[in-house]
Amino acid sequence: MIRGVNSAPTKALLSPKKASAKGALNLEKQQTEVSESANPNVHITVLLNEAVQALAIKADGVYVDGTFGRGGHSRKILEQLGATGRLIAFDRDLKAVESSKEITDARFSMVHSHFAGMQAKLNAMGILKVDGILLDLGISSPQIDDASRGFSFRYDAPLDMRMDQSSGQTAADFLADTTEQHLAEVIKNYGEERFAKQIARAIITERNDGRAITTTGQLAKVVAGAVTRFEPGQNPATRTFQALRIFVNQELEELSLTMPQCLALLAPQGRLAVISFHSLEDRIVKQFIRDQANRDDLPANFPVRAADLPQPKMMNVGKTIKPSAKEVKVNLRSRSAVLRVAERTNVA
Ligand SMILES: C[S@@+](CC[C@H](N)C(=O)[O-])C[C@H]1O[C@@H](n2cnc3c(N)ncnc32)[C@H](O)[C@@H]1O
After folding, report:
1. DSSP-derived secondary structure letter, 66
2. Ligand 1: nearest atom to the Cα of 71
3. How many CA atoms does the CB half-sphere of 279 hold within 13 Å?
4. Tens digit of each residue's pLDDT (9 = 90 or more) over 103-156
């Protein structure tokens, strides 16, 4: 279920930390990918070996792929599992779920759900603990390349943008209802778009003049008229499309709700591997792991013995992993990917 699509952005969304220059660049790169994807209906899995290796698969373990997509990571995990191992995959996209039927393997189960429903769904299946969880965030190439999904300004199509087309409001529904101020906040906070106010005003003016925005083509045109400066080679609507997609799918809220569930679900020595594609989501992952892993927030002379302090529930595993130059050459979409890995400790 998509929650609160019409509600005001959450506190975290209203006042995000300023994106770093590097973060902004990453966002730009991910958005540019939308216009550079070359191969419709195929998703090239990003950081395939690195992400699966990071899970340190135990042959008899229970693993979760929270973002099945077209199953690249899932297939690799299954290759490494033994006969008694288990993999439960999630995706909120019905086409992804449909594509999972190609995998006929008794060790594999597919669940149509947003990943923030992970703990409830697993518990309902009798699974209380797992040995590893993988999240490969964002959208897949087949989603971008299917014109009817409304994710891309490359095609003129109904402005949908829902990953789960079975529920929630479309981007067009949101634009039909929202206020100018709320829209400007969404475009600014999720798109890091400096012309957010002008774009919001242009969209609402169109609507008030009886030309509600219902297609990707209309949206791209109105945004282009409101943006006076943009990066060379980038479509002026790139950041607005990105912002609406993140908002419609509540992507950051999903991630924030899921990280504590991963902590609760992971058995001792269980691994969490998360691939992010822009700074807004990577910041949530990084902060969560940091909060569990250390106590940097305590003053140096805090009057408590180290042994009496709460012990870390998670440890960072290695440094962040990025795709090799070779991978980026083969799959341009991978270039902004960042993989973070953490391990659950024994601390309850
Ligand atoms: C980048 S693709 C994953 C690709 C996959 N690792 C592969 O190798 O094919 C992301 C997938 O996650 C799904 N997704 C994104 N956010 C989700 C969420 N909150 N809950 C469930 N699925 C989500 C999307 O529908 C999409 O299919």
Report:
1. S
2. 9
3. 18
4. 999 999 999 999 999 999 999 999 999 999 999 999 999 999 999 999 999 999
Protein residue closest via CA to atom 17 of ligand 1: 114
Cβ contact 168:1 at 8 Å: yes
Start-to-end Cα distance in the chain: 30
Tokens 């795709």 appear where? 323
- Residue 2: is its pLDDT beyond 50? no
96 pocket-lining for ligand 1 (C-beta < 6 Å) = yes
- Of ligand 1's listed atoms, the one at least distance from the Cα of 140 is 2
Ligand 1 atom with least separation from CA of 46? 8
Ligand 1 centroid vs 229 CA: distance in angstroms?
32
Mean pLDDT over each residue of the chain, to the nearest integer:
88
**336: closest CA among 255, 256, 257, 280?**
280
Domains with residue ranges and CATH for the chain: 48-141+252-344 (3.40.50.150), 165-248 (1.10.150.170)
Considering only CA atoms, which residue is closest to atom 8 of ligand 1? 72
Which residue has its alpha carbon closest to ligand 1 atom 2? 140
- pLDDT (tens digit per residue) in 83-106: 999 999 999 999 999 999 999 999
Whether 323 lines ligand 1, by a CB cut-off of 6 Å, is: no
Residues near 245 by beta carbon (within 8 Å), at least 6 away in sequence: 139, 151, 161, 171, 251
Distance, CA of 116 to CA of 91 (rounded, Å): 11
Give dist(CA 158, CA 142) in Å, integer.
17
Q: What average pLDDT does the segment 196-219 reach?
A: 97
Would the pLDDT of 296 be above 60? no
User: How far is the C-alpha of 277 from the C-alpha of 333, rounded, in Å?
Assistant: 9
Best mutation site among 39, 68, 94, 111 for ligand 1, i.e. most ligand atoms within 8 A of its Cβ? Answer: 68
Confirm or reject: Cβ of 178 under 6 Å from ligand 1. no
247 lines ligand 1 (CB under 6 A): no
Q: Which residue has the tokens 């008229």?
A: 225
